[in-house]
């Protein structure tokens, strides 16, 4: 009885520690993504970027946080105050919750206990990710509607329709991937790639579709119509100030981080290190788990830098171009890719019918 109770408490402590660690990593990466964004922009535009707050500007994110915390928190008098507060909180919650099913590494051993570097290995992990991503749309819509500002509402409607449109092509590209892997578990997908090679080799078109849709889901340039301050009066969160605005801005960077981790997991082997599987059997499991985590973070950082490079090199789409691309180009391509993949899997499994 006591042993069972101790085991249960140890399991809960492990998961709680892992949750805190994963959320903390996401927040730190998102915080320094704001610094890296301006450094990348500065490098592309031949200027230094942030270089006043700390060495090389490394304290700039803390200066930004102090600025947001110290600003006056204004709630419009004619807004729906409950929903006005709920909107940014929901956007932030949806951004963070995605991390629960991502395998950050294989396992580590502490005090004789094997600890899996994943909060929860759900059998329906991919569906969980889609469900959480869909929640982010409510954060945008609630914020725009509760502001009682017609320009905020228009931007929120654009954002919601954009997310819904691109989720279709993203979902179809993932269905093609699931035909190959045969599992909805993200850990299972990574293990399959360790055994059979990375999915990017088998689904290059599916990855390209997923990548484009990820830009639209994260409201990143060239699909940042919900926040296009040049045309839309600062977008759906123009009535927000202080840390409520900070939550919306921060949620975008956390979404970018989680999308990068997800693409690395689904198509680039996750924590798998290429040409390392044979040597890995001789290593300590803890060292191997930490190396896998480092490999995943390296792939993720490369994707984040790609997001930033695209932002500062490609101009924004017009709204009609954005919807035309989603419905008339990406959706048919995703359907074709899914059908071709289904035929290939059937032929591989059962052979040609003649």
UniProtKB/TrEMBL annotation:
Annotated catalysed reactions: a quinone + NADH + 5 H(+)(in) = a quinol + NAD(+) + 4 H(+)(out)
Chain segments annotated as transmembrane: 12-33, 82-105, 125-147, 168-186, 198-216, 245-267, 287-310, 330-347
Main location: membrane
Subcellular location: Cell membrane; Membrane
Database matches in InterPro entries: NADH_UbQ_OxRdtase_su1/FPO, NADH_UbQ_OxRdtase_su1_CS
NCBIfam families (alphabetical): PRK06076.1-2
Subunit structure of this chain's protein: NDH-1 is composed of 14 different subunits. Subunits NuoA, H, J, K, L, M, N constitute the membrane sector of the complex.
Family: Belongs to the complex I subunit 1 family.
Function: NDH-1 shuttles electrons from NADH, via FMN and iron-sulfur (Fe-S) centers, to quinones in the respiratory chain. The immediate electron acceptor for the enzyme in this species is believed to be ubiquinone. Couples the redox reaction to proton translocation (for every two electrons transferred, four hydrogen ions are translocated across the cytoplasmic membrane), and thus conserves the redox energy in a proton gradient. This subunit may bind ubiquinone.
Protein name: NADH-quinone oxidoreductase subunit H
Annotated organism of origin: Polluticaenibacter yanchengensis
Top-level taxonomy: Bacteria, Pseudomonadati, Bacteroidota, Chitinophagia, Chitinophagales
């Amino acid at each position: 009885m006591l042993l069972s109770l101790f085991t249960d408490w140890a399991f809960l402590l492990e998961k709680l520690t892992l949750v805190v660690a994963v959320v903390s990593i996401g927040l730190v990466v998102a915080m320094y993504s704001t610094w890296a964004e301006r450094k990348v922009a500065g490098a592309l535009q031949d200027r230094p970027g942030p270089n006043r707050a700390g060495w090389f500007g490394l304290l700039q994110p803390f200066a930004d946080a102090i600025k947001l915390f110290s600003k006056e928190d204004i709630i419009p008098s004619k807004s729906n105050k409950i929903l006005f507060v709920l909107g940014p909180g929901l956007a932030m919650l949806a951004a963070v919750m995605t991390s629960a099913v991502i395998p950050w590494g294989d396992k580590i051993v502490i005090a004789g206990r094997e600890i899996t570097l994943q909060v929860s290995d759900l059998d329906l992990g991919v569906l969980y990710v889609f469900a959480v991503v869909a929640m982010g749309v409510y954060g945008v819509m609630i914020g725009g509607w509760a502001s009682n500002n017609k320009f905020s509402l228009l931007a929120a409607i654009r954002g919601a329709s954009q997310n819904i449109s691109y989720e279709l092509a993203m979902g179809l590209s993932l269905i093609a991937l699931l035909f190959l892997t045969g599992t909805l578990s993200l850990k299972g997908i990574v293990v399959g790639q360790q055994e059979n090679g990375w999915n990017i080799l088998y689904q290059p078109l599916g990855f390209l579709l997923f990548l484009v849709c990820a830009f639209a889901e994260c409201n990143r340039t060239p699909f940042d119509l919900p926040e296009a301050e040049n045309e839309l009066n600062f977008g759906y969160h123009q009535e927000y100030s202080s840390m409520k605005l900070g939550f919306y801005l921060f949620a975008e960077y956390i979404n970018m981080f989680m999308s990068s981790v997800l693409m690395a997991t689904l198509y680039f082997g996750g924590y798998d290190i290429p040409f390392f599987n044979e040597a890995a059997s001789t290593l300590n499991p803890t060292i191997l788990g930490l190396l896998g985590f480092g490999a995943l973070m390296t792939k993720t950082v490369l994707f984040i830098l790609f997001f930033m490079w695209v932002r500062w090199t490609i101009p924004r789409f017009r709204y009609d171009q954005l919807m035309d691309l989603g419905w008339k180009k990406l959706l048919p391509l995703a359907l074709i890719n899914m059908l071709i993949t289904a035929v290939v899997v059937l032929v591989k499994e059962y052979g040609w019918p003649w």
